[in-house]
Structures are given as structure tokens and as C-alpha cells.
Amino acid sequence: MIKVIIIDFEDSFVKNLSSLFKEIGYSDISLCHHSNFDLSYITGDSLVVLGPGPGRTSDYESFKKRVEPIIGKVPMLGVCLGHQILGEILGFQLMQLKKPLHGKSICNPKLNEFIGIAQLKVQFYNSWALKFDSENATKVISRDGVVDLFHCRKAIGVQFHVESVGTNYPRELLERLLNILYNETYGVENQNRWNLR
Length: 197
Description:
The protein is an alpha/beta fold. The protein has a single domain (about 5-195), classed as Rossmann fold (3-Layer(aba) Sandwich), CATH 3.40.50.880. The protein is about 25% helix and about 30% strand. The chain has 6 helices and 9 strands. The strands form 2 sheets. It has a 7-stranded mixed sheet with strand order 2-1-3-4-9-8-7, sandwiched between helices.
């Protein structure tokens, strides 16, 4: 059984994220405050989820040093701030957006094709983002030079909030992200499973 460890950066969305994991069938879920995270929490079947949070990645330098040794070794999903933290460690650059995307639902056709949900809309709450300028990711989905999703060995990061009410297929989206993370399969071959076209 997979043990889901959700890193809490003191954001209210983290509870929604935990609930979404429960909805899709995960029962061994624990919240861990970022300041308490220790590598001893990791077991052979752990999934580490870096949740959303306030502030900038530079506010969490201590956490970044503690999590860096397991990137590429333990399956990891980064959401919003967690996506930015993972991305910075992997070599992406952080940039401040000209206009914050607070509570905005966006349809990105490239993302929809990659995930395999044609009518997908995802919700953003961010004023910072990763630039698309890294060679460390297997796959990058960008929009106007800003990274919405990246995937590399045992790590996937999403700038948007999978768990938000403004994301229209949250359960299906999370399941597909985990399928990518564990099986590295995505896109057209999975579209019929959800019959969303």
C-alpha cells in the first residue's frame, strides 16, 4: 500500500488535497509540516506530495535542502508552491508574473492533450512561476514561456491546483498524474478510460 506524505506549507488547500487522495482510494495519508520533514519518514512505498503554500520558494530553504536528496529516488508530486520548489531544485528559474493568476481557471490545449482530458480546465492561484528554460525534465507543458507542468524521473510538478473547485475534473486529473508518475504513460491512449470526450 502506498503511503502518501503531504507536506504542509500552511495553506488551507492542503486539506482539500488530502481529501482528494482519499476520494480516489488512498487511505494511508499523513500531513507533515514542512519544518518537521525528515528523511526517516520515507519508506519504500512512499509518495511525497509537496503541497501549495504562501510566499516564495526562498522562504523554505531549509526544507529544500532536506528534500533534495530524495528527488529522483522517491515518487514526488509538487502542487503550486511544491511545483516551484521541485522545479528550482531541478534547474528551472523562478519568475514573477506581470499579473497574478488568483482564482483563474484556464484551458491549456497542450496540457489537455498530454493528460488526455479534452475539456479540462485547471485553476491557478499564483503570482510566481517557473520559466521554461530547463533541460532536466522529460516533458514540459508551458504556456507563454511559463511552466504549467513538468515531468521527469519519479517527479511531476503542476503549477495549478488539482484539488481546487475551479478544476473541473479533479479526481480524474489526480489519477492521471499519478499514472504518469508511476507508469510514465499518458495522453491519447488513456482518453477512453474516462469517456470525457
